[in-house]
Write a structure and sequence with these properties.
Blueprint (H helix, E strand, L loop, with lengths): L1 E6 L15 H13 L9 E10 L9 E10 L2 H22 L2 E6 L10 H12 L19 H10 L25 H22 L1
Antiparallel strand pairs: 1-3, 1-4, 2-3
Helix pairs in contact: 1-2
Length: 204
């Protein structure tokens, strides 16, 4: 995840537009180019320009613009491929529009790497739970998860890690009416965790 900031120079759009340097036009140009970054044949890649704010008044050359974007890749290398393109686009836009640009990293996620034995143990637990109707193994999770850093740290210290998603009834993610029915859904996940911990304690 990145914040992109563009700083130009204000000027009156009618009396001396030549003195202005439009951060808004620079940001718009960058947004279009970022959206057009080629996807990689090596795996799933994504990019999203989620927010753009710019301008002060209808007759003033905009001196400030701010964008919020996100890149994703099935691996860290694929995400780096997307990020490198973003950096080149921003530097090129900076030169083309004679503005100053800054890229701020505000978050990221690592590869989601789990251990088969932990997943097998979780799957066995679900078979014993009446509240679980079906279990599927997922090869790739397209979401960007903060927990991937915790999982990586655990595995770097010779620990084992697993990851599971559980279904719930809601209208869909990233919507104004998003809600999770905690009383129906959360207890299922809680039961899985407690059963897993109980099993681990008994084996220690």
């Amino acid at each position: 995840m990145r914040h992109l900031r563009f700083e130009g120079a204000p000027a009156h759009a009618g009396s001396n537009p030549e003195a202005g340097k439009s951060a808004l036009l620079a940001a718009c140009n960058a947004a279009t180019l970022v959206a057009g970054i080629p996807r990689h044949s090596g795996g799933l890649t994504r990019v999203c320009v989620g927010k753009l704010e710019a301008g002060e008044s209808r007759n003033v050359i905009p001196a400030h613009a701010r964008m919020e974007i996100e890149t994703r890749g099935a691996t860290s290398d694929l995400d780096a491929f997307m990020v490198d393109h973003v950096k080149r686009i921003v530097r090129g836009t900076e030169a083309a529009f004679d503005v100053k640009a800054k890229i701020e990293k505000v978050g990221s996620a690592a590869n989601l790497e789990t251990d088969p034995e932990v997943l097998a143990r979780l799957a066995k637990i679900t078979e014993q739970m009446e509240s679980v109707e079906k279990t599927n193994f997922i090869r790739f999770v397209p979401a960007s998860e903060d927990c991937t850093w915790l999982i990586r740290r655990v595995r770097e210290h010779s620990g084992k890690a697993g990851y599971f998603l559980f279904g719930c009834n809601h209208h869909g993610h990233h919507r104004g009416d998003f809600s999770i029915q905690d009383e129906k859904s959360m207890p299922v996940a809680f039961e899985m965790l407690t059963k897993y911990l109980a099993e681990r304690n008994m084996s220690c």
